[in-house]
Design a protein that fits this description.
Layout (H helix, E strand, L loop, with lengths): L16 H19 L11 E6 L5 H12 L3 E5 L12 H11 L2 E5 L3 H10 L4 E5 L5 H14 L9 E5 L5 H13 L2 E5 L8 H13 L4 E4 L2 H5 L4 E4 L9 H11 L6 H6 L6 E4 L10 H9 L10 H6 L1 H23 L6
Parallel strand pairs: 1-2, 1-3, 3-4, 5-6, 5-8, 6-7, 8-9
Helix pairs in contact: 1-5, 1-13, 2-13, 3-4, 5-6, 5-13, 6-7
InterPro entries: Asp/Orn_carbamoyltranf_P-bd, Asp/Orn_carbamoylTrfase, Asp/Orn_carbamoylTrfase_sf, Asp_carbamoyltransf_Asp/Orn-bd, Orn/put_carbamltrans, OTCase_ArgI
Catalytic activity: carbamoyl phosphate + L-ornithine = L-citrulline + phosphate + H(+)
GO biological process, one term: L-arginine biosynthetic process via ornithine
């Protein structure tokens, strides 16, 4: 019996360390099979609902291609295309979709919504992103880290997450570090540190296993000797412009640039970014923000550093597909013989 069968994925702490590692191993195999044209579609009779209250590129494409590769059918429910929480309660929506579909993906703002979907749906529910957690992104990140250091255990790898750590990536990175043993430094101004309760829990549990998780405002201390620097865009569409201005002012010293890389004392340090990135002025948003706030060469990451590391960054993005596929196969098959 597959112990991940019909299991939800609302956050990474829904799983054990062993289960996370098994998902990563399965993703490696599925990725290899796809590259070698040896993939076997195992989800031919499955139907999946993709609820997107918040728009997406990578998450939607990854879930759809993962499902199609495995022979499953999908229904895309975009922003404004359902009665979810407006004309029909989330509870009632979960009950009917759980009868019609074998699995439900939800991407939206309020984490409470996905918790209600999970509670009342008979089908497994997967978190494509909420304001609190982004587990499918971190699964892809762990696969990317493992691919770049295949001979190293996670517990021997040092990562610095730089920028706004008070967001879904920061929260999910804390949980990932606790589960697999990464040495994690969240490098950010105190105003951008994660919520105290989650941080304290992850840090104390990590200490019991002789692992290291810290928050620091000191960039030099945080990035010294790390194997990876990870950053994310500092602003999101839909936020008030006053919030942007305050956050950008706080985070300006935390831009990933040449000077920061020199502080690592590691000439082989690798850069991760979950995308999209405001590294140039080739988008309307990038052009307006960089000009307004006086950035000459990217915002959270400079254009030169982004381009030097684009191979691993776009591999990281592709790995969303393979880890999401592993999640679907794991939770939709009663017996997983892969």
């Amino acid at each position: 019996m597959n112990n991940l069968y019909k299991r939800d994925c609302l956050r990474l702490l829904d799983f054990t360390s062993l289960e996370i590692n098994n998902i990563i191993l399965l993703a490696e195999k599925l990725k290899k099979d796809k590259k070698n044209n040896k993939e076997i579609p195992l989800l031919k009779t499955k139907n999946i609902a993709l609820i997107f209250e918040k728009e997406s590129t990578r998450t939607r494409c990854s879930f759809e291609v993962a499902a199609f590769d495995q022979g499953a059918n999908v229904t895309y429910l975009g922003p404004g295309s359902t009665h979810l929480g407006v004309k029909e309660s989330i509870e009632d929506t979960a009950k009917i979709l759980g009868r019609l579909y074998d699995g439900i993906q939800y991407r939206g703002h309020d984490h409470k919504i996905i918790e209600i979907l999970s509670k009342y749906s008979k089908a497994p529910v997967w978190n494509g992103l909420t304001e609190k957690f982004h587990p499918t992104q971190l699964l892809a990140d762990l696969l990317t880290i493992k691919e770049n250091f295949p001979e190293k255990k996670f517990c021997n790898i040092k990562c610095a997450y730089v920028g706004d750590a008070h967001n879904n990536i920061g929260n999910s990175f804390l949980e990932a570090a606790l589960l697999v043993g990464l040495d994690l430094r969240l490098v950010a101004p105190k105003e951008c540190w994660p919520e105290k309760k989650l941080f304290k829990f992850c840090q104390e549990e990590a200490k019991k296993k002789k692992r290291n998780i810290i928050c620091t405002e000191n960039v030099a201390e945080g990035v010294k000797n790390v194997d990876f620097i990870y950053t994310d865009v500092w602003v999101s569409m839909g936020e008030r412009k006053e919030i942007w201005e305050k956050r950008i002012k706080l985070l300006r010293p935390y831009q990933v640039n040449r000077n920061m890389l020199n502080m690592t004392y590691n000439s082989q340090v690798k850069i991760l970014h979950c995308l999209p990135a405001l590294h140039d002025q080739k988008t309307d948003m990038g052009k307006s923000i960089l000009k307004k706030y006086g950035f000459q060469n990217g915002m959270e990451i400079t254009d030169d550093i982004f381009k030097e590391n684009q191979k691993i960054i776009f591999e990281q993005a592709e790995n969303r597909l393979h880890t999401i596929k592993a999640l679907l196969v794991s939770s939709l098959l009663k017996k997983n013989n892969l």
